[in-house]
Amino acid sequence: MTNFSEHALEVTKRIPKGKVATYADIAKAAGSPKAARAVGSALRKNKNLIIIPCHRVVRSDGFVGCYSGKGDKTGLLVAEGVAVVNGRVELARYKCRLEQIID
DNA sequence: GCACTGACCGGTC
DNA sequence: AGACCGGCCAGTG
């Protein structure tokens, strides 16, 4: 596991229940604002899937995006109280500030 | 070390 | 508003 992955996963872990964060924001928090893709790669390859709420990570537009796991992110989000409409969430409502959850 | 891939983003058409 | 295109970055063969 590289430093970037660790950081990205660590941040993802801290996303509060019922909230979501964008890949771009996580990338920013990880140290590379443009590395949104890399964040996705890290989450896809990571083995800590069980301890990481990767389903709380959505795209900048609010679209849920893809998911390597079995269940679907959309369903999990709805189960946590995050309204998902047409495969997307209301960022204005559920997006959380990573700056505040990072120490 | 090069080249391809991918859970992406932003700007244009 | 919706679709398209190129460019990001890190990981893997």
Précis, in short:
The protein has 103 residues and is mostly helical. 44% of the residues lie in helices and 8% in strands. The protein has a single domain, classed as Winged helix-like DNA-binding domain superfamily/Winged helix DNA-binding domain (Arc Repressor Mutant, subunit A, Orthogonal Bundle).
Describe this structure in words.
The protein is mainly α. It has one domain: Winged helix-like DNA-binding domain superfamily/Winged helix DNA-binding domain (Arc Repressor Mutant, subunit A, Orthogonal Bundle). It is 44% helix and 8% strand. It is built from six helices and four strands. Strand 3 and strand 4 form a beta hairpin. Helix 1 crosses helix 2. The longest helix has 11 residues. The structure holds a DNA duplex (13 and 13 nucleotides).
> How many domains, in number, for the residues?
1
SSE string: HEHHEHEEHH
**What is the fold named in CATH at topology level?**
Arc Repressor Mutant, subunit A
**Name of the CATH first level:** Mainly Alpha
State the CATH architecture.
Orthogonal Bundle
Strand % is 5-15%
> What helical percentage do the residues reach?
40-55%
